[in-house]
Amino acid sequence: MLEHHLNHKMRFDQQVDNSLNYVLPFVEQSLTIQKGTRVLEIGCGEGGVLKPFVDRGCECLGVDLDDIRIVLGNDFLSEEIKQGNLKLWNKNVFDQDFQSTYSEYFDLILLKDVIEHIPDQEAFIPFMKKLLKPKGQIFFGFPPWYMPFGGHQQLCKSKLASKLPYYHILPMKPYLWFLKAMGESENLIEQQKEIKETAISIERFERIVKNTGYQIVSRQWFLINPIYKFKFGLKPRKQNWLFGAIPFIRNFLTTCAYYTIQKK
């Protein structure tokens, strides 16, 4: 397990830096970010991704189902919350009161390292249209399932299980057997099982987008995920366009995919 998984403030600061230098500039390729832009982040954690948007004067709301991370975010971003441009809530976007309050409300919805954890993505991605303004956009940043650590095995406590790439693509039974043989806890094994069940590839993501009435506005794949400069000391690097053009194979060496989409 990496240090930032245990150090909440370190993880928050890393997310702020990553959002400022990569997420926000990517979004700005297709959407003007300015004072009053309404931004929702789903799965916001401590709110680090939202911080650069708040600093631009955006009206920001972050929601997460993990109450502990919301409590931390309210501490880390207490000044921004006092100023009135940011709210962090322990809330489910499927709740009827949320849907009615924020119907076609947001200019931008952010999902950074979140969509790969959400069940039934075929239903969830079109659902977000209800919350999005007609010309609004949705940002996704996620690790394609077949990349070396697409199973989030870095969360494992065993040194071998946390550093061995690609074994997460094994069939479910041998995969869970391996985790158990490595001495991982039942809670961790169940968590890894859920991640495997909600796995998403580049091709499946793009198919869902196309089949649910969106169009892709921007895309960028990374050979080296920008957040890896903190995790592993590696310099971020975009995926070679030629390698990225090869369907399915590109998933194995693309560690991160960025997209913005909007309703057709």
Please characterize this protein's 3D structure.
The chain is built from twelve helices and eight strands. The model has no long low-confidence stretch (mean pLDDT 95). The chain is globular, with a radius of gyration of 18 Å. It has two domains: 3-145 and 199-263, Vaccinia Virus protein VP39 (Rossmann fold), CATH 3.40.50; 153-197, no CATH class. By secondary structure, the protein is an alpha/beta fold. Strand 1 (38-42), helix 2 (51-55) and strand 2 form a beta-alpha-beta unit. The longest helix has 20 residues, at 8-27. The chain has helices at residues 8-27, 51-55, 67-76, 78-83, 96-101, 121-127, 159-163, 172-181, 186-197, 202-211, 228-231, 241-244, and strands at residues 38-42, 59-64, 86-90, 106-112, 132-142, 214-224, 237-238, 256-263. Helix 8 runs antiparallel to helix 9. The chain has an eight-stranded mixed sheet, sandwiched between helices.
CATH class of the largest domain: Alpha Beta
Give the radius of gyration: 18 Å
Low-confidence sequence ranges: none
Q: Residue-averaged pLDDT, rounded?
A: 95
Percent in helix: 25-40%
Coarse structural class? alpha/beta
DSSP strand (E) fraction?
15-25%
* Coarse shape: globular
Condensed summary:
The protein is of the alpha/beta class and 264 residues long. 38% of the residues lie in helices and 21% in strands. The protein folds into two domains: 3-145 and 199-263, Vaccinia Virus protein VP39 (Rossmann fold, 3-Layer(aba) Sandwich); 153-197, no CATH class.
